[in-house]
Amino acid sequence: MSADSPTPTPMHAIPPAAIERPARETIEALKHIGSATAAGELNRLGFRNCTIVGPVPWSPGTTAVGPALTLQFLPKRPDVYDDAEYVAPERQLHRHVLYQAAPGDVVVVDARGEMTSGVFGEMMMTYFKGRGGAGVVIDGCLRDIAEIKKLGLGLWLRGATPNFHTQTVQFPAAINVPIACGGALVLPGDVIVADDDGAVVVPRPALEQLVERAGAHAEWEEFSRLRLSQGGDLRKYYPLTDEARAEYEAWKKESHP
Q1: Is residue 105 located within the same domain as residue 228?
Q2: For 235-247, how does the pLDDT look when each residue is reduced to its tens digit (9 = 90+)?
Q3: Are 96 and 11 in contact (CB under 8 A)?
Q4: End of a domain among 157, 182, 202?
Q5: What is the pLDDT of residues 173-196, one digit of tens each?
Q6: How far is the C-alpha of 257 from the C-alpha of 127, rounded, in Å?
Q7: In angstroms, how far is the first alpha carbon of the chain from the final one?
Q8: What are the tens digits of pLDDT across the range 22-31?
Q9: 167: nearest Cα among 143, 136, 193, 187
Q10: Residue 134 CA: distances (Å) to CA of 26, 102, 158
Q11: Are residues 198 and 215 in the same domain?
């Protein structure tokens, strides 16, 4: 910064308390349903804007289900933020969201769809993986992507860039606050269900209903899939009709006593 430049106003508040995480058994139950079933059942429960649009799977075959830690980026302005990559590292709030990570957590980032800012790099993601993190959903980019892919984390991103996080137009401004990621509202502690179809936000108030409804949905779909693979009538078995209900109940009693 030059002598004539304004002195940045601090925007690095003390990070808030750790998020409230759902019971482990709830998370485990959601791991069996997939993002497509989650999105469909949430829609039927009245939650119609829970799919994160923009970030796409960069780790094929990987599923991540866990509570959301949130990170918000804002546009840079010299009177507010003018730090370089390694200046005062503890003022860099993207570090602090990782400090709060627990096994199974998913970091969700409102990076404003910015394609010139690498929110995290290899070292940060190595640390996150070491803490047991499950994955990241970023409305923006990572850098060091080849090395990060080797870590086995779930990755849902808009892209990759060689730039570090504050190199161009934005800076990390807040953690564990409500954010918009890919057009969906994400609150700290909401549950993310992400797989090859994309990432879905499960609001905390909908968790128990979703587990109950999605479990039943997955069970009748298992039966329907079997019948369809045997040449059964699509009109009868998908969705499951009243005509097939007795057959399904008998199958369930035999297969899942």
Answers
A1: no
A2: 999 989 999 999 9
A3: no
A4: 202
A5: 999 999 999 999 999 999 999 999
A6: 44
A7: 70
A8: 999 999 999 9
A9: 143
A10: 16, 9, 18
A11: no
